[in-house]
Amino acid sequence: MTIQYTTRYAIGREEVKTFTTEQLRAEFLLADLMQEDLINLVYTHYDRYIVGGAIPKNTALDLISIDALKSKYFLERREIGFINVGNTGTITVDGEVFTLENKEALYVGKDAKSVVLASLSINDPARFYINSAPAHAQYPTKKVGMADANILHMGSKETCNERHIHQLIINGIVETCQLQMGITCLQLGSVWNTMPAHQHDRRMETYFYFDLDDTQSVCHFMGEPKETRHIWVQNEQAVVSPPWSIHSGAGTSNYAFVWGMAGENLDYDDMDKYAPPELR
Predict the structure, then answer these.
(1) Can you give the pLDDT at residue 86?
(2) Would strands 142-144 and 105-108 be described as parallel, antiparallel, or unpaired?
(3) Most buried residue among 35, 158, 168, 240 by CB atoms closer than 10 A?
(4) Which sites bind Zn(2+) (predicted)?
(5) Neighbours of 77 (CB within 10 A)
(6) Ramachandran angles phi, psi of 16, nearest 5°
(7) What does the alpha-carbon distance between residue 194 and residue 205 come to, in Å, rounded to a whole number?
(8) Domains in the chain and their CATH numbers?
(9) Cα(44)–Cα(7) distance, rounded to whole angstroms?
(10) Which residue numbers in the chain have pLDDT < 70?
(11) Cβ neighbours, 10 Å, residue 9
């Protein structure tokens, strides 16, 4: 078996107010996404979003359908995005080969029948981070490199949140139904991401933290702006963020993360912002 999945059901904001640390981690932290020679998926009930990881080390990995989709093939009613956070890899879509270097992305649209993941090196394989959302229309498969991204320079050294946001799979660069993905890179000396914090009630989001030394951690903040909670996150772990929750974090060093989202619209700036003094 080269593919597996688990399910996370939607949790309400009132419920979370009573959660212990372990309950928060069990519901929102995705701790073991990256596993060798396995496509490891989490099917969430937030906008039917799927989050996953894959390390095709010794064998190529075929993205076949899972029982939760009740479909003949994985992308029968879905679209998908891949971002490579490892060494060089390939993704073959219906016979067409796309080579992805580190931090490069590939969007694959609805109705693609065959998707196969592979690495060029067994000793240093590709590490594919995966996001997928339901799709109502078919759009072309497209590779997006870091040079193709729309880059936003946010924050400052003075507020410890100087960061570069690389918009990869986003409206204006790639046609999608609802999926959006990109990479945020914290600059040396900066640790805060997504500050000022925000939430967007019209879509959910996931954060996948990477390029974080094994001796360091990120404290991810979630919850309502006046009722925040936190989850400590390690390298190559992800957090699912419901529409009612903020998503922000501070690390013990600088790091990078992949953000991915889906929901009501494709307006990146559709968010409700909260200044630091407003948070509780």
Answers:
(1) 98
(2) antiparallel
(3) 168
(4) 198, 200, 205, 247
(5) 15
(6) -65, -25
(7) 13
(8) 3-278 (2.60.120.10)
(9) 6
(10) none
(11) 9
